[in-house]
Amino acid sequence: MSQVPSVGRIVHYVSYGTPGGEFKQECRAAIITETNTSDTVGLCVLNPTGQFFNRTVTYHDGSETPGTPGCDGLHAAGPHRYCGCGWMEASLKGGTWHWPERV
Fold first, then answer.
1. Which residues, 6 or more positions from 72, have their beta carbon under 8 angstroms from its beta carbon?
2. How far apart are CA 103 and CA 13, in angstroms?
3. pTM of the predicted model over 0.85
4. How far, CA to CA in Å, does 80 sit from each of 20, 67, 92?
5. pLDDT tens digits for 46-102?
6. Whole-angstrom Cα distance, residue 42 to residue 50?
7. The CA-based dihedral angle spanning residues 103, 42, 61, 13, taken in that order and rounded to the nearest 10 degrees
8. Which residue of 3, 12, 13, 56 could cross-link 30, Cys pair, CB 3.0 to 4.6 Å?
9. Cβ-based burial of 91 (10 A; exposed 0-12, middle 13-18, buried ≥19)
């Protein structure tokens, strides 16, 4: 992570969404209210219907999770989101925060 989280900075919080798809997983504006570690912060999440406070939100940049060494690489050949070796496709995880993309 190239930036250092500090109180008052605006970041994105990734909502969980619902299993049935009624609500999609999406980014919400959030303000850092406390810093716990370089990866975990407290947030005030700004939702269209109100605010949500969480004191232990982990950073995740959306990059893929590498698998164990020696993986057969079958995930590269098809439309899989994960592999038995631990590899997971690049995507943002619900319940995490990340720096907003610069436009």
1. 85
2. 18
3. no
4. 20, 13, 16
5. 999 999 999 999 998 887 666 676 666 555 545 555 566 766 666 788 999 999 988
6. 17
7. -60
8. 13
9. middle
